[in-house]
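Appendix C: a fully annotated inverse folding record. The material below is reproduced so that readers can follow the format used throughout the book. The structure is listed first as tokens, followed by the designed sequence.
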């Protein structure tokens, strides 16, 4: 796409936003309900973490291949295959009533999610002008945020009135709708996406990461560790605290509302002023949210933490993604997105699995105090990276 054309809301961009909305809604409806499903079939907190984590790690393992296929075979086959696997796995969840079956289905679901989410992010990147990429990816991310606004709450509401089998079947139907819409998107042809023969000597055969996306991906990793702790254990934690079941639904609504607000503002700020102006306040906001969740004496703390976490995550995630893809050539966008989202998966997966053991040994509150430490490490790493970049820029200016 030419930078002269600054239009964001094209037909294809609208379609990818809607498709992303449907697959994220299906995903978000299962996010807080799967831990409850694991408890219903008689498994412990440790298994809750493993069920969430194995999904994340299967997505993580497939992402490098997804990135390479996106850059060589084109967007459409990878995206549609991922959506198909995701839909099949959703319907299969409805028939999974043992831990072994559930783990197998979650592996397949992770592969489908890894392929489809990497593809969707890359397709959105293709469709947004470079000079408005922070803003455009912020708008694209709103589709997932709107799903966050009611997806978890809807899932928790439905599971109190219908069976888990019915819930997972509804999620499968949402995925089918996404496939139908995705089939109507006009994708870049493979030869326009990448010419791997010309670039063969530039990239090694064992090509699993985009090196220039590693800095933003590393920062994202330390931040999404917190997401693993929230998505997996916060519903159970609030129930243990004796909070009404509706409070966790309000949490996700408040979180999504502030996430949407900050995404719009942060994307524009990133495009005009760079990463620092959004990353530092966003990180500090997440740290504050984790500390509040660690104490959590009243529901008010839960709601304030939701607002702080939504604001913070909405600042850092789209800015880091735009930073990652802006550093690479057009024919490496797929691999850059794969590297970026692999870090997301790794953070969520390690958070979910490790915090399962932490919860059993030290209690749920320790999860969130540990998460505050993780984001603090991300902030320190960011300051170190930016200092190194400024030093390199000064040396380059002296040479020129």
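Designed amino acids, in order:
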């Amino acid at each position: 796409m030419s930078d002269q054309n600054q239009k964001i809301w094209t037909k294809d961009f609208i379609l990818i936003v809607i498709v992303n909305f449907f697959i994220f809604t299906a995903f978000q409806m299962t996010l807080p309900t799967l831990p409850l499903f694991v408890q219903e079939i008689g498994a412990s907190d440790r298994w809750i973490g493993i069920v969430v984590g194995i999904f994340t790690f299967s997505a993580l393992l497939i992402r490098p291949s997804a990135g390479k296929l996106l850059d060589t075979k084109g967007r459409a086959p990878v995206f549609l295959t991922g959506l198909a696997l995701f839909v099949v796995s959703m319907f299969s969840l409805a028939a999974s009533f043992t831990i072994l079956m559930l783990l197998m289905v979650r592996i397949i679901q992770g592969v489908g999610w890894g392929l489809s989410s990497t593809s969707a992010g890359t397709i959105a990147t293709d469709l947004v002008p470079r000079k408005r990429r922070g803003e455009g990816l912020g708008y694209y991310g709103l589709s997932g945020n709107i799903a966050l606004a009611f997806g978890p709450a809807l899932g928790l509401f439905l599971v109190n009135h219908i069976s888990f089998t019915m819930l997972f079947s509804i999620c499968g139907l949402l995925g089918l709708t996404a496939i139908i819409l995705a089939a109507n998107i006009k994708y870049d042809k493979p030869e326009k996406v990448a010419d791997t023969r010309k670039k063969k000597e530039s990239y090694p055969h064992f090509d699993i990461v985009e090196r220039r996306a590693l800095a933003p991906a590393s920062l994202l990793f330390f931040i999404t560790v917190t997401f693993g702790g929230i998505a997996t254990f916060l519903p159970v934690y609030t129930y243990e605290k004796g909070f009404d079941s509706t409070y966790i639904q309000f949490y996700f609504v408040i979180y999504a509302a502030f996430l949407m607000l900050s995404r719009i503002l942060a994307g524009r700020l990133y495009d005009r002023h760079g990463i620092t102006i959004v990353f530092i306040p966003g990180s500090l906001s997440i740290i504050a949210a984790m500390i509040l969740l660690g104490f959590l004496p009243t529901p008010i703390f839960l709601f304030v933490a939701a607002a702080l976490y939504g604001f913070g995550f909405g600042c850092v995630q789209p800015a880091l993604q735009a930073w990652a893809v802006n550093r690479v050539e057009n024919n490496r966008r797929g691999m850059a997105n794969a590297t970026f989202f692999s870090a997301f998966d790794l953070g969520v997966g390690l958070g979910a699995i490790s915090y399962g053991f932490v919860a059993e040994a030290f209690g749920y509150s320790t999860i969130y105090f540990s998460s505050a430490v993780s984001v603090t490490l991300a902030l320190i790493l960011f300051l170190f990276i930016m200092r190194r970049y400024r030093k390199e820029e000064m040396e380059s200016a002296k040479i020129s």
